[in-house]
Amino acid sequence: MKIIMLGAPGAGKGTQAKMIAETYHIPHISTGDMFRMNIKNGTELGMEAKTYMDQGLLVPDELTVRIFLDRVAKEDCKDGYVLDGFPRNIPQAEVLEDALNKLGDQIDYAIDVEVPDENIIRRMSGRRACTSCGATYHIEHVPPKKEGICDDCGDALVLRDDDRPETVEKRLRVYQEQTQPLIEFYSKKGVLRSVDGTKDMQDVFKEIEEIIK
Ligand code: AP5
Ligand code: MG
Question: What is the strand order of the sheet 157-158 is part of?
Answer without folding.
Answer: 136-138, 127-130, 157-158
